[in-house]
Amino acid sequence: MKNTFRYRLLILLAAGVCAALFSCGTDDSPIDSTSEHFKAIIISGNSAIRIDPILFSSRVALLKKGEVVEVIERSKTKSWIGKTNDYWFKVRRNSGIVGWTFGTNIKLLRPGTASLEQYISDFMKDDSKEVIKALTGKWWSVNSFGDFTNHCIEIKDDNTYKSYTKGGGAFFSGEYTFDFNKNQIIFLKGATFGNSLDMIKRGQTYMLQKEQEDQIVQFKRIAAEIKDEPEPEPEKKVEAADETKTE
Questions:
Q1: Nearest 5 degrees, angle CA 198-CA 202-CA 206?
Q2: pTM higher than 0.70, yes or no?
Q3: Residues 6 or more apart in contact with residue 187 via CB below 8 angstroms
């Protein structure tokens, strides 16, 4: 019995060692904290960096999408956040601020990446396509109760837009672009609510909002497709009948 127990124990230990060796791939290899060239790009806007590698640890700052940071350290083990299992990474911003961020927020750039600037440019182009697809449609402003208010914005996938108010008041149209550092969509010809809206991503869904003085104007997408309506025809002037009679 003792020999059988020892034999089984040895098998379990050997299996554990093999599993540990198998899990040590390229992506899971330890990060050299002394490296001066190990970089990462932030792929999720408003990603928090925290004092400790724990979800409920105090937040130090928010990272901007597309921002490049230096990777200092990686947690020894992976952690679960929701259904995602990943490492925590200790990063340093250009400003010198240091903190921990979850692995799904960053894309590691291994030493030898050809051109950091080109990589970021390509990343932003791909991201723009995703954001345009998510934002295309008709959006109406809503209040804190979810009731529709005065502003409408139509965002098209050809980088054009229309902005107008309820009842056919003010009207703007033109092209839009993105500022990923600020997580904003910029309306180059202006809009009824200003020149920009903040883009907030929750899971796979985007929200649009605008801070105005002491309130936040939020927008709700009511249609993913925009139907081009014919321009109204100008009203015809009706000449008054000549009441003068000739005898």
A1: 50
A2: no
A3: 153, 161, 163, 172, 174, 176, 195, 196, 197
SS3 label, residue 41: strand
Neighbour tally for 232: CB within 10 Å: 7
* 172 token code pair: 């703007």
User: Tokens 């033109």 correspond to what residue?
Assistant: 174
CA neighbours closer than 13 Å in the CB half-sphere of residue 99:
20
Cβ distance 209 to 220 under 8 Å? Answer: no
- Each residue of 61-113: pLDDT tens digit? 988 877 889 999 999 999 999 889 999 999 999 899 999 999 999 988 866 65
| Strands of the chain, DSSP E | 39-42, 47-50, 59-63, 68-74, 79-81, 84-86, 88-92, 98-102, 106-109, 137-142, 148-155, 160-165, 171-179, 184-191, 194-202, 205-212, 215-223
- Cα separation, 221 vs 56, in Å, equals 32
Q: What is the largest CA-CA distance in the chain?
A: 135
Q: Work out the pLDDT band at 58, boundaries 50, 70, 90.
A: very high
* 34-47 confidence digits (pLDDT tens): 445 578 888 877 78
Beta bridge partners of 122: none
Task: Return d(Cα 157, Cα 225) in angstroms, integer.
Answer: 10
Which is it for strands 137-142 and 106-109: parallel, antiparallel or unpaired? Answer: unpaired
